[in-house]
Amino acid sequence: MLILARKKNQSIMIGDDIEIMVTDISGDCVKLGINAPRHISVHRKEIYEAIKRENEAAAKVRETGLSRLSMMFQRLGKSDER
């Protein structure tokens, strides 16, 4: 992990197109401004983790739903053969 010290209104660059600037410091709270291309998602870590959990849960629901749908079609196919 790279650790950098920055003061208010100073910034760091990530690659050529992501800038992170310290916009305010108040007590133990630091406000950051982030300039990044629109195609790059920027989230607080707790939001990112919540999105990840929701996506994983949605994927499980889809798998279950597809399995049930597949079983229904198999049953329908067998009943048509009779």
What does the model show?
With 82 residues, the protein is an alpha+beta fold. The protein has 2 domains: 41 residues, no CATH class; 40 residues. It is built from 1 helix and 3 strands, in the order βββα. Strands 1-2-3 form a 3-stranded antiparallel β-sheet, with no helix packed on it. The longest helix has 37 residues. The radius of gyration is 24 Å and the shape is rod-shaped. The termini are far apart. The relative contact order is 0.08. The model has no long low-confidence stretch (mean pLDDT 89).
Task: Give a quick set of tags describing it.
82 residues; alpha+beta; 1 helix; rod-shaped; 3-stranded antiparallel sheet
> In angstroms, what separates the terminal alpha carbons?
66 Å
Count up the domains. 2
Q: Number of helical segments?
A: 1
Tally of strands: 3
- Low-confidence segments, given as residue ranges, are none
Shape from CA axes? rod-shaped
Question: What is the string of helix and strand elements?
Answer: EEEH
Record the strand order, biggest sheet: 1-2-3
Mean pLDDT across the residues is 89
Rg, Å, rounded: 24 Å
Oligomer: single chain
Q: Characterize the main sheet.
A: 3 strands, antiparallel
Strand-pairing-aware structural class: alpha+beta
Residues in β-strands, percent? 15-25%
What share of residues is helical?
40-55%
What's a concise summary of this model?
Helix content is 45%, strand content 24%. The chain has 82 residues and is of the alpha+beta class.
